[in-house]
């Protein structure tokens, strides 16, 4: 029966090329937008280079302190000393890396200024994040203990600073902010959309201007906790929270008296959306309202338009429906026929959309709009795309099917 429905749908497509073009154009355009959006969200939140272990990582981005009345609060990154004491000491984690968020610096080649994004890290950073070293190697604990003024740079910075040369730059000197550093490694860079690992230049935290000696709780550092396996994430979180409960309260930091301290270790998605989701109800309502509106615009409106197209397309088959009903075809059978036909057509549009999506994301990756962009159609994106095709087919097919299956025999045969 299913094969027959698909054959009928194919014949209908060939019989009405204009309706076919309009239908497939609307479906493929809508699904292309959705697939590109899904690919971008996967690029933002998925486990990709160099954060390939993101599925078993917890991120510590900020500390939040409140006064005794909980009316005033302060939040921001932490000091290296604080994270060393309360995060680096974790027993349940496989590794813990402490690094700064992105900082700004300048380098000069002749009179040309190169604006740089820089990051101070510990040696474990290169174990938690899996960078591809094109030349050299990362700095290690010995470099850090010796306060060696060495750096790891990206291939993009190498090109801008040393020119388009194939020769190795390991051991060469770079001058940044009037300080000289020896290049110890060259890596393929991290996309700007991954702020925990993105930078142009990576320094050991013991090099100048890192402020790692700060003794208070506040500073410019964040951390990534790597669990041994995904199932250990809860144990790592619990141990970290037990450490945070050991912070003596009340306390004073930079003249601010606080009675409560909150430091969360969260998976990347929760960390990314935490500021919005932990806000007041008004912010939450606006956030989810915007998401719902976008989804409605992307799927709801095209589905409504395609409902009208499908009704017009099916109206021409009223006599067919009348004859089938006269021979005893039940309403459920007719409904499923039209729904399956519409899903089949939607999947054809989805196939076209998949080809268009591959072209578009290739253009985005090669355009340089997002440095080191690696948008792709992987298994997760493909499965989501299949689900979207199915939902879209149902949304645009149920109403026309319901309407046409309820046509009276006499009315249908007159059409």
UniProtKB/TrEMBL annotation:
It comes from the Bacteria. Residues 293-408 form the ABC3 transporter permease C-terminal domain. Residues 20-242 form the MacB-like periplasmic core domain. It is a multi-pass membrane protein. Coiled coil: none annotated. Keywords: Cell membrane, Membrane, Transmembrane, Transmembrane helix. This is FtsX-like permease family protein. The lineage of its organism: Bacteria, Pseudomonadati, Bacteroidota, Cytophagia, Cytophagales. The chain crosses the membrane at residues 21-41, 286-307, 342-365, 377-399. GO terms for molecular function: transmembrane transporter activity. Its main location: membrane. It is found in: Cell membrane. It holds the Pfam family FtsX. GO terms for cellular component: plasma membrane. The keyword Transcription does not apply.
């Amino acid at each position: 029966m299913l094969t027959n429905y698909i054959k009928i749908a194919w014949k209908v497509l060939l019989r009405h090329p204009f309706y076919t073009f309009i239908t497939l154009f609307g479906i493929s355009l809508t699904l292309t937008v959705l697939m590109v959006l899904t690919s971008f969200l996967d690029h933002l939140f998925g486990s990709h280079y160099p954060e390939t272990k993101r599925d078993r990582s917890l991120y510590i981005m900020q500390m939040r302190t409140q006064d005794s009345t909980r009316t005033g609060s302060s939040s921001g990154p932490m000091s290296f000393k604080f994270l060393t004491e309360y995060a680096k000491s974790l027993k349940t984690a496989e590794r813990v890396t402490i690094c700064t968020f992105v900082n700004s610096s300048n380098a000069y080649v002749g009179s040309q200024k190169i604006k740089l994004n820089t990051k101070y890290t510990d040696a474990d950073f290169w174990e938690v994040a899996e960078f591809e070293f094109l030349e050299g190697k990362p700095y290690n604990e010995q470099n850090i203990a010796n306060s060696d003024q060495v750096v790891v740079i990206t291939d993009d910075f190498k090109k801008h600073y040393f020119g388009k040369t194939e020769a190795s730059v390991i051991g060469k000197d770079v001058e940044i902010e009037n300080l000289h550093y020896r290049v110890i490694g060259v890596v393929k860079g991290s996309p700007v959309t991954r702020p925990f690992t993105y930078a142009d230049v990576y320094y050991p935290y013991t090099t100048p201007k890192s402020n790692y000696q700060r003794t208070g709780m506040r500073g410019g550092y964040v951390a990534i906790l790597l669990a041994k396996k995904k199932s250990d994430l809860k144990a790592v979180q619990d141990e970290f929270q037990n450490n945070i409960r050991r912070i003596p309260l009340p306390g004073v930091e930079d003249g601010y008296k606080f009675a409560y301290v909150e430091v969360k270790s969260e998976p990347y998605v929760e960390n990314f959306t935490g500021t919005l989701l932990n806000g007041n109800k008004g912010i939450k309502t606006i956030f989810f309202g915007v998401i719902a509106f976008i989804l409605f615009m992307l799927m709801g409106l095209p589905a409504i338009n395609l409902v009208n197209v499908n009704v017009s397309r099916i109206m021409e088959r009223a006599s067919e429906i009348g004859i089938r009903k006269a021979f005893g075809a039940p309403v459920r059978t007719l409904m499923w026929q039209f729904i399956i036909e519409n899903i089949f057509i939607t999947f054809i549009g989805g196939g076209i959309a998949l080809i268009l999506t591959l072209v578009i994301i290739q253009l985005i990756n090669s355009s340089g709009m997002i440095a080191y962009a690696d948008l792709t159609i992987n298994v997760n994106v493909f499965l989501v795309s299949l689900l979207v095709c199915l939902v879209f087919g149902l949304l645009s097919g149920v109403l026309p099917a319901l309407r046409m299956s309820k046509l009276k025999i006499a009315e249908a045969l007159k059409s």
